[in-house]
Design a protein that fits this description.
Elements (H helix, E strand, L loop, with lengths): L3 H27 L4 E9 L5 E10 L2 E5 L2 E2 L4 H4 L3 H27 L3 E5 L5 E6 L5 E5 L2 E2 L1
Parallel strand pairs: 3-7, 4-8
Antiparallel strand pairs: 1-2, 2-3, 5-6
Length: about 140
Amino acid sequence: MLRDDAYRERYQQARAKCLEALAVKFLERLLPGATVGRNLFYPTPDGSLAETDALLLFDRYLFIIEAKAGGMRPSARRGAPLALKEAFGRIIEEAFVQSGRVREYILSRGEAIFTDKSGEPAFVVKKSEIDEVFFVNPTLP
């Protein structure tokens, strides 16, 4: 039997994956013909790899999708305004910061190459071929 903390962690991961899948599914329906890459990796300035949930390229528009599902303290669940603000703020900020890192990676080079988990190139974004970058950050507290 899993410990309580391990169960919560697996539950949060499952919520985040479900949220991510639904966000991508709905955007694909809204933007037929878009090119989609999910669970992509890219190098960070310190040489490590970071993951982005999904990229969606439609015409000359790039959508960076970072879905977040986080837990709330009991006081937030009871509706305490400050606790709710802290819970939502933390989750939204984390997704926004991650999206910003992906955007910076793309804009810092002519051609940004994203790989799959095996390290094979899976999605390429050419800076010259995009006009706008949008962050899509669905959240579940």
